[in-house]
Amino acid sequence: MSGADRAAALVAISRTLDAFYGASPEPFVPGKSRVALSAATFGKPEVMEAIDSLLSGFVTMGKKSREFETMVERDLGVGNALFCNSGSSSNLLAVAALSNQWTSGAWKPGDEIITGAVTWSTTVWPLIQHGLKPVFVDIDPRTLTLDLDQVEAAITPKTRGLAVVHLLGNPVDMDRVTDIARRHGLLVFEDCCEALGATWKSKPVGTSGDAGSFSTYFSHHITTIEGGLMTTNRDDVAEASRALREHGWTRSLRGRPEWAAKHPDMDDRFLFANTGYNLRPTEVSGAFGIHQWKRLPGFLKTRKANHDYWTSRLEPYRDVLHLVDAPPGASHFSFAASPKRNAPFTRKQWATFLESKGIETRPIMTGNFTRHPVWHNLPHKVHGKTTNADFVSDAGLLWGNHHLIGPAEREYVADAVDTFMHSHGA
């Protein structure tokens, strides 16, 4: 296809998309429209950028993916952001880099890594896959994030790191995490897959530890369809990550010229200096990213407005409902409202009613992850009691919070809660 043909095709496609995206959205009809857990956050700009990539023929990781990375580095104030094909891959890349021979003080097989008992599976699997031993501690009942008192109590001579999960967009106290890590010589991995846009004292999460990860999956704060980002301010971690993301070759390394000079008899396009995977994104995902990133502030504003409204409306029911507190700087991934143990109704009754009203619900992440049968044959340790994580397993429930939930939708949800509570004498 010539340049002129491509340009003409894009003009025609643009007109078609104007008609498609210019149509009036379906109005919200209380009792008939569904309040979904997630919704598409993209529109014409993302689709046009993706089509441009498809028509160009450059569809694997390239200039648009790097442009997206550069935007993230600039706005998060982080030295390195590596775009990956999923948030789970970003977790894998972070742990692999912190366990790599090129990283100073790297984790070794058998090292213990402390993390919270309420998490997501692919936060933990990279630890197992690298021969590390997860040590689970209970969570803070207010925010459902890591209980740092329990972290300190769980530290032993075998402890080498912390896997800090900013669950539901709630930032963990990174000042204290950094202090604990400094005093005990620990590396810190921040899982921010549910916390894009969250900050601790104005500092973006994912920029305080040795490595961080984010998700840009369809249902998260922004979407690149599938995708994720691994972040670090450490040069050694970044260089290891570049190799690990792409087969272990030197092609994307900052130190590529030096490797080529040491091995002049080999084609440096295919010179391998480390182990590796293939965790690269597509250029179509990068095309989405450069437009989605610009939308993030608006999405965060809507999420906060929804969260604040529901928290205010549900405040009278705190005697029977556990509402998760959002610290300053939270990015409000979802809204959690779980029946307390003394509530005159069960989680099943609560969820069934909400679903009957078209309000989609789900449990809170893995619940207490240590209660899943997969751990019967895997090395791990549970420190102390996990009372709060058990509560999340037994009663935890959340519903969606995203940019398509506006005043009409959030009021409908709150009214449904009122109806249910009044029917149970609350």
Question: Can you walk me through this structure?
Answer:
- It is a single chain.
- With 426 residues, this protein is α/β, with parallel strands linked by helices.
- The chain has two domains: 52-288, Aspartate Aminotransferase, domain 2, CATH 3.40.640; 297-423, Aspartate Aminotransferase, domain 1.
- It is 40% helix and 13% strand.
- It is built from 13 helices and 14 strands.
- The strands form three sheets. Strands 1-9-8-5-4-2-3-13 form an eight-stranded mixed beta sheet, sandwiched between helices.
- The mean pLDDT is 97.
Descriptive tags:
flat, 2 domains, four-stranded antiparallel sheet, 13 helices, 426 residues, alpha/beta, eight-stranded mixed sheet, single chain, Aspartate Aminotransferase, domain 1, Aspartate Aminotransferase, domain 2
Extended strand count: 14
- CATH uppermost class of the largest domain: Alpha Beta
Secondary-structure element order, as H and E? HHHEHEHEHEHEEEEEHHHEEHEEHEH
Kindly state the percentage of residues in helix.
40-55%
Strand order of the largest sheet: 1-9-8-5-4-2-3-13
Rounded to the nearest angstrom, the distance between the terminal CA atoms is 67 Å
User: In CATH terms, what is the fold-level topology of the largest domain?
Assistant: Aspartate Aminotransferase, domain 2
State the CATH architecture of the largest domain: 3-Layer(aba) Sandwich
Could you give a short account of the major beta sheet? 8 strands, mixed
How would you classify the helix and strand content by structural class?
alpha/beta
Range of strand content: 5-15%
Low-confidence stretches: none
Tell me the Rg in angstroms. Answer: 23 Å
